[in-house]
Amino acid sequence: MWNKKLKAAGCAALALAVGSVVAETATEQDLPDARSLIERHIEALGGREAILAHSEGTAKGEFSMPAVGITGTLMVASRPPAEQVVHIELPGMGEMQTGFSPELAWSVDPFMGPRLIEGEEFDSLLESTVPAAVMRDPEYVLSATTVEQAEFLDQACYRVRLEWRSGRETHDCYALETGLLIATQSLEKSPMGEMEALTLLDEYREMEGFLVPTVTRLYIMGQEQVMTLTEFSLDAPDPALFERPPPIQTLLEDR
Asked: How many other CB atoms sit within 10 Å of the CB of residue 138?
């Protein structure tokens, strides 16, 4: 689940466009059922109960953009049923914040100022954060189809097309050897328009009895954003972290 939250943080906080990385497809062959691949991934992480248990906690680490030499701190705090806030602090640039609940999403950053996240961009955050959506449950996913064998991170994987009830279409790639999700491709909506996005998930490690991809690489319009987790806690976050910033409250009052 944390990798999905980090992806949302990168897209919403920076609002950069996405550059694609091409996967190598395999020859036609018998392909496994998509639902069996999804369930195998869930079990590899630790099971459904573990995913639900990890809906509360705090992850900390590093955010960087290697091409431009920018490195800062990252914090993601979550609490049930599906609320999160993300803080990214970049030296010389300031703080970027993103907040999400099933009823409201917002962002504040030095580039675009305060704004409410709505429409298809909100749908993307919803589908990246709510536990049932993270587990690709039919409540959110209309259909899942295995379409081909591909390769990411030097690993063979099965590519699964997801049709969401919101109308979005995305692709997941599950490693043949481990069953873990190692890549996600999608078209994301932002104030800059529709963007192709590729997220690579690497270096899975056990944290608090749950497998977490500690390195997430998000490719946006030729730019690479790297999010590296170094700490993970299941302690309840400070409620003050979830308070809406004054500029967001003003936008809500002016609606």
From this structure: 11
Residue 113 lies in a domain: yes
Are 86 and 13 in contact, with CB atoms under 8 Å apart? yes
Domain that holds residue 24: 2-230
User: Does any domain span residue 200?
Assistant: yes
Per-residue exposure over 61-75, b if at least 16 CB sit within 10 Å of its own CB, e if not:
bebbbeeeeeebebb
Tokens of 186: 């999608």
CATH number of domain containing 31:
2.50.20
| pTM of the complete model | 0.83
Residues of the chain short of pLDDT 50, as ranges, are 1-28
| Dihedral pair phi/psi, residue 128, rounded to 5° | -100, -5
Q: What is the pLDDT of residue 190?
A: 66
Work out how many domains the chain is built from and give that number.
1
Does residue 246 belong to any structural domain of this protein? Answer: no
Q: Are the C-beta atoms of 65 and 91 separated by less than 8 Å?
A: no
